[in-house]
């Protein structure tokens, strides 16, 4: 949640000059992004009327080989009318450029805000845009495996160790020990696949009122089951942020919004309880790992894995919410 | 250099509704400010054509009693044509509002970037705007003492202690011991006073090419000698960021720019060598104190006091640069 690299105004102006976007007018480092630095850039625009962009510098974690997948996916989805930011290509047509050993990309700025407490109208709109994304991405030619699949949850669990997990909460260690082994054998196969966002928490959705103006942060996007993405989004949207309780109204709105565009098959619907538990396990494990491995002086705010562990239990004990 | 307080989109929208600026379109936390949190805000604007603002939440250090001074000063200077952001008053005319126990203010957004390596043209423009500010502020009715005056340098030196300073560098402890006692008796008296910015480093000046588009961050502004502000600005602008060497060309440009608007009297010019040493001591002491007292996990990047201590030595040994 910080700008990790200092990029002086002179460097920034030189970089912007490699794009056909006019000249630099303003650049503010923004406090977003965990594994990248971001600036909100204003230029005179190609037409002199002003334009805004997000400049992202990829700092950690990202595989440079994956960058063309993420960035050309944005172009593919934007061309099909999805509310995602287009990638601005440089004057040579490149999707990204290198500054030293770090890649940078310029993407469109989209209006809208990320809500902390979604309304049913916003959950419905998010469901609708997720389904439109799944449809629009179906013919995207590139593929990328889900690097955050079951094998990765197992690796993270091993890296944390039961003792490590117990330092977060003893019941978390027990939950992981009892639940994690269930997924590998039972995980659904043969459900429809497409490109999924895989991380569509409310922070990654921009809205104005009940209108979704932007889906952002596609750096976990991959080819996987559409229904798994529904499960991730359900995990992310359908809970009261204040008391942690399940919100049936948001769940109904999200699923109705989704199915208005892309109805779920019986097989997909039947798989949702397990997929949602898996989605919860995926974020429990990545957050628990980060919790145990984030240095005290890091610029990143650690996210608590425990609320998501509670959601896993709820999904396990209440499969009827998807009926 | 971070956003210390989470302000959800819903809270932000409610806050913006208390101003006559249209409705909230976008809000991005920006990575600026050491003792406050800042957001770059976009709204539909009063006229529906869109408008941008900086929202500042005062987190630390600031005395609430001082806020009307800083914020009404912006209005005073903007009304006289200085390139400073206007304070946006709320619908009740208030300069700032409270969110819980923290004050927030909405100020105009100004275009421009802060350069890392100023050119002579930019130093000249900065000098000119500093002089215009000193002239425009002369009839500002409120007053505020300089809280970062000699008594405060002495207090900070005592708080650091010679042993503390020596952990930064042994020669720094020696320099403070030998130089600090000189100021109290020799400090100039009777030079013309006005409102001074007192912190006009290049980060606090927005430029487009050689045009100054914004003077920002007035939270050290106070009533003091105009020539002292010239000295602070000289300390901040006239050195090579790469090798630390004095840059005679920038010095000449800054002073020429200033004197084109407000010529220095003989007394002011004669005082500059000592005022510049004092300006250096002021920032050496505040940076040394912050260096020793910033927790390792702070979101703030500590600034090195040593380059400024070298500048103090240079000013002491080369009074002729102001002749």
From TrEMBL, chains A, B:
Any GO molecular function: homoserine kinase activity
Nucleotide-binding as UniProt keyword: yes
Keyword Iron: no
SUPFAM superfamilies: Protein kinase-like (PK-like) (SSF56112)
Enzyme class: transferase
InterPro entries for this protein: Aminoglycoside_PTrfase, Homoserine_kinase_II, Kinase-like_dom_sf, Pseudomonas-type_ThrB
Domain annotation Aminoglycoside phosphotransferase: ranges: 27-264
Gene Ontology biological-process annotations: threonine biosynthetic process
EC number(s) recorded for this UniProt protein: 2.7.1.39
Record's catalysed reaction(s): L-homoserine + ATP = O-phospho-L-homoserine + ADP + H(+)
TM helices/strands, residue ranges: none
Pathway: Amino-acid biosynthesis; L-threonine biosynthesis; L-threonine from L-aspartate: step 4/5
Keywords: Amino-acid biosynthesis, ATP-binding, Kinase, Nucleotide-binding, Threonine biosynthesis, Transferase
Pfam families cross-referenced by the UniProt entry: APH
Record-stated family: Belongs to the pseudomonas-type ThrB family.
PANTHER family: AMINOGLYCOSIDE PHOSPHOTRANSFERASE DOMAIN-CONTAINING PROTEIN, AMINOGLYCOSIDE PHOSPHOTRANSFERASE DOMAIN-CONTAINING PROTEIN-RELATED
Protein name from the UniProt record: Homoserine kinase
């Amino acid at each position: 949640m910080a700008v990790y690299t200092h990029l002086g105004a002179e460097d920034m102006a030189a970089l912007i000059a490699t794009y056909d976007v006019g000249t630099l007018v303003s650049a503010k480092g923004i406090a977003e992004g965990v594994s990248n630095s971001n600036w909100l850039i204003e230029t005179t625009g190609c037409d002199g009327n002003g334009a805004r962009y997000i400049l992202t510098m990829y700092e950690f974690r990202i595989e440079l080989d994956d960058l063309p997948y993420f960035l050309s996916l944005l172009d593919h989805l934007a061309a099909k009318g999805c509310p995602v930011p287009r990638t601005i290509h440089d004057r040579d047509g490149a999707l990204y450029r290198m500054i030293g050993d770090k890649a940078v990309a310029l993407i469109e700025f989209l209006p809208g805000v990320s809500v902390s407490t979604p309304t049913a109208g916003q959950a419905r709109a998010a469901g609708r845009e997720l389904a439109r994304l799944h449809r629009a991405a179906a013919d995207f030619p590139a593929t990328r495996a889900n690097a955050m699949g079951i094998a990765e949850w197992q690796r993270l669990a091993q890296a944390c160790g039961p003792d490590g997990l117990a330092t977060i909460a003893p019941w978390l260690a027990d939950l992981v020990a009892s639940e994690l082994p269930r997924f590998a054998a039972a995980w659904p196969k043969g459900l429809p696949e497409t490109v999924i966002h895989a991380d569509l928490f409310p922070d990654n959705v921009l809205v104005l009122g009940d209108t979704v103006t932007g889906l952002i942060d596609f750096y976990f996007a991959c080819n996987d089951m559409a229904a798994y993405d529904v499960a991730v989004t359900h995990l992310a949207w359908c809970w009261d942020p204040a008391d942690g309780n399940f919100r049936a109204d948001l769940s109904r709105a999200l699923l109705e919004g989704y199915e208005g565009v892309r109805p779920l098959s019986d097989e997909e619907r039947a798989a949702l309880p397990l997929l949602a538990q898996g989605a919860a396990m995926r974020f429990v494990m990545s957050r628990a790992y980060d919790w145990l491995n984030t240095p005290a002086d890091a610029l990143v705010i650690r996210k608590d894995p425990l609320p998501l562990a509670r959601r896993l239990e709820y999904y396990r004990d209440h499969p009827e919410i998807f009926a």
